[in-house]
Amino acid sequence: MGNGESKSEYGGLVVHTDQPYSISGEMVTGNIYVQLEKPFPADELRIKLKGKEKCKWYEPKQRTEGEGENMKVIHYEDKYDEDETIMKFEKTLYSFDSEFLPAGQYTFPFAFKIPAD
After folding, report:
1. What is the dihedral of CA 91, 96, 102, 105, to 10 degrees?
2. What is the Cα 67 distance to its own chain's centre?
3. For residue 114, what is the DSSP state?
4. What domain count does the chain have?
5. Are 81 and 18 contacting, i.e. CB atoms less than 8 angstroms apart?
6. Alpha carbon separation from 34 to 22, 24, 68, 111 (Å, rounded)
7. Distance CA 38, CA 106 (A)
8. C-alpha–C-alpha distance, residues 36 and 105, integer Å
């Protein structure tokens, strides 16, 4: 998983997970720290996760060029690069009673389980 930080004209937000990484089926816990300099238009706090797998490999190849005494073998590699989304997850962590979150400092603890599939 990891930790992230975001800033805007309203203030800043830091996400801190208790574990450095997580795997499918595990609980993820942590805190979201929010510092608002002015009221922020929000009625809920949602978390979205997207998991991707990435793969890169090279295959050695060769080809011949020319004919007779001028023929030479050229060695090269074909590069392959693929990625695929393997998980998308979204969950409402908190719902607020009003349409604005007042200026101030907030800590939102969270816990959720990563889908096992």
Report:
1. -50
2. 52
3. P
4. 1
5. no
6. 23, 27, 73, 17
7. 13
8. 6
Question: The pTM is what?
Answer: 0.65
Give the residue from 106, 76, 96 showing the smallest Cα distance to 12. 106
**CA terminus-to-terminus distance, the chain:** 17
Token couple for 14: 């830091």
Structure tokens at 21: 């990484």
- Cβ–Cβ under 8 Å, residues 111 and 60: no
- Residue for token digits 């190849």? 61
Assigned token pair, 2 = 């990891």
pLDDT at 109 exceeding the cut of 90: yes
Q: Which two structure tokens, joined as six digits, stand for 25?
A: 């089926």
Distance CA(91)–CA(13), nearest Å, equals: 18
Q: How confident is the model over 8-17, as pLDDT tens digits?
A: 889 999 999 9
Q: What angle do CA 39, 28, 93 make, to 5 degrees?
A: 30
Per-residue pLDDT band for 44 (boundaries 50, 70, 90) equals: very high
Range of the domain at 16: 4-113
